[in-house]
Design brief:
Layout: E1 2-6, H1 10-17, E2 24-26, H2 29-33, H3 39-49, E3 53-57, H4 64-75, E4 81-86, H5 89-100, E5 105-110, H6 113-121, E6 126-129, H7 131-136, H8 141-155, E7 160-163, H9 169-178, E8 182-185, H10 187-194, H11 197-220
Parallel strand pairs: 1-2, 1-8, 2-3, 3-4, 4-5, 5-6, 6-7, 7-8
The structure holds SN-glycerol-3-phosphate.
Residues 6, 26, 28, 130, 132-133, 164-165, 184 line the site of SN-glycerol-3-phosphate.
Amino acid sequence: MRLFLDTASIEEIREINRWGVLSGVTTNPTLVAREHGDPDAVWKEILSEVDGDVSLEVTDLSTPSAMVEQGRRLAAMGPNAVVKVPMTPDGLETGKLLTKDGIRINVTLVFSPAQAILAAEIGAYIVSPFLGRIDDAASDGMHALRQICEIYEVQGYETNVLAASLRHPMHVVDAALAGADIATLPYDVFTKLVKHPLTDVGLQSFSADWQRLQEELKGGA
Ligand code: G3P
């Protein structure tokens, strides 16, 4: 399962990228707005920083042709750009047209296996079910993800399943068990993923024992 960072913050991307585990980035209009800068500059900086897929979301939703035009512009920003379109009738129309142009699309705001079937049928590169938000609506996000992965397997769909809206490390573990191709994690979930109290305890005792040995050796000299 490839790990993506769900952010538009270049500092967060640089930090996690140093770990050597980052395969891509997903952004959305909320995350880009949080950076308070020119969106084109934000997107371009991320595209050049990351050696992997970067999802950029269309924001001009007025008509399918406006979405297609913006989608083409976003795709032209870099060879690693993936254009995000929403799971709506206009979004599907736009996604299909962009796909025909050879542009890779990520169908976002997906909340059900039924919607995921539509994304696969238009030849989307990525489908993004929002697990945490399904849980927020008193439903079972992980169950929906498992169903989507099973349907894609049975049907032979090639669309990559990207588990999004992940809130904690067990979401990541369960998404991997379900067979998701990609998981996109907010910065705080990434940092929680690396942490374990026994790692800290073990490191402390190893360091203390090593230090004691150095003192013994110094004393014996
Ligand atoms: O970027 C899409 C998705 O991951 C958003 O997550 O936490 O805002 O529901 P969240």
